[in-house]
């Protein structure tokens, strides 16, 4: 089983490039890493950040263009000297499938080279908290792959699987899923903890793309966190989470089963939750602020990223409450996709194949 390490997620602000032909593959990954962490860049900026010669950069860029991984943007005019032509990733240059085994559903997505979701589906679990539909998951992955035209299917780099903290029953199921996917689809499969995968996807495609250091919160059935320093994800020694997530809210709504079920949807009308929703909101913000304050005794935390499957407007309200409690902290939200862990899983094969370590 391949475990895709989530760190480092990208190269440092300046990495040492090598000009020898024997390490051209490393240099290509160096350039692709810069493009993955920036929407556009120029040959001049590549040279400044890598130390590679202009001739080497031209050779690499020409090769990446021929492979369809990189494309030119519109020339930037109005500057001194000739127009500057930025470089960017070709969205159709590469694809990846992501699978996220969640609390109630397993999500399957297909994303392109810049993180756009091209296919998305969800498999409800027969039993909450347990995933055992291996055939169903494999079928959805095949549907995702078949959604592409035959030439583009050749550009699928692999399959990423985001899994919760392992239990004995989950370990055997995860291993069976891994073997089934590799055997039936003949693609490399990369496995990672689901929260670490979500943080990796956020750093590659989301609001944390340009952040070097931040605290990552994922709001799911429980509240999970990861610390990212110098683009590296730290999992900690134990999968500690806080019971102030959606499961806690569901318990609080036991007398309203209709509302209790609806909160698991990104389309839920949270304004109908009334005082129960307000109390949960405050409990969540208090727990998150407490975590930030505890960590601040050792590391200066200025930026927090909140990710979840819930609606974007609810995420922003939660972020505003945390900021009101801790004015020195900026809280960024990214809940738009509804499947951040699956997108993070898809990012694993891109990181493994195109980025430098």
Automatic annotation (TrEMBL):
Signal peptide: none annotated. InterPro entries: ATPase_NBD (IPR043129), ROK (IPR000600), WH-like_DNA-bd_sf (IPR036388), WH_DNA-bd_sf (IPR036390). It comes from the Bacteria. PANTHER family: BIFUNCTIONAL UDP-N-ACETYLGLUCOSAMINE 2-EPIMERASE_N-ACETYLMANNOSAMINE KINASE, ROK (REPRESSOR, ORF, KINASE) FAMILY. Belongs to the ROK (NagC/XylR) family. This is ROK family protein. It comes from Rhizobium lusitanum. The lineage of its organism: Bacteria, Pseudomonadati, Pseudomonadota, Alphaproteobacteria, Hyphomicrobiales.
